[in-house]
Amino acid sequence: MAWRQWLDALLGRPRLVPARPEKLFALVTAAPTLEQELGWVSTGRAGICLKPVATLQYAEVQQELVELARLGARETKSRVEAVRDQLGFTWLVLEDPQFEDLVTLAHLAVSTLEEKGFGTQVLSAVFRFQPGSRLHEMAAETLPSRIYLIYNYKRGTFYPFLPRGAQAQAADGRLESAELQAAALLGRELPVEKDPSRWYALWECPV
Predict the structure, then answer these.
(1) Cα separation of 81 and 172, whole Å?
(2) Distance of alpha carbon 134 from alpha carbon 162, whole angstroms
(3) DSSP-based three-state secondary structure for 174
(4) Which of the pair, 59 or 17, is modelled with greater confidence?
(5) CA proximity to 24, closest of 126, 132, 148, 131
(6) What pTM, to 2 d.p., does this model score?
(7) CB of 104 within 8 A of CB of 74?
């Protein structure tokens, strides 16, 4: 049985929509806009969210996913760790102080997973930022403590997620007006998701 056929049998479901990683590198050229116009400064952290494999072999598959991602990480000498969130999703948390290398690492991780037949498990890439000096001029109640730029691999689009509160909990809500403003600026250089109802909140994200 071919590798992809085996994976379909393992998942016990029809073929899932494959990831679309080709637009991720647009982030590199958009970096000046992120920092100079939006006031977003990279924290050097990102994450790849993977759909869980609902079988008894989950632990073995998860470990292979981590090893595949670490294989790609060797190219940039970055850090990779696996985290399982409260909903059962696996996260590959990536660290690199150089933003371009961080984007490259995310691309390498997903490309490696695709080569091994795990591309349909990839859901999103999340890049975390912090407010730069420009944003600190804002009123405290409108200043985000965490800033996320999310890439939806299934749709090939980006969208911002700006939660209120230091813990990024659903009870605190999100800065929707700031998200809309950010999306308008990002849309000049990135393929931004045009439907705000698809700007899914990733509460308590491990990134």
Answers:
(1) 28
(2) 16
(3) strand
(4) 59
(5) 126
(6) 0.82
(7) no
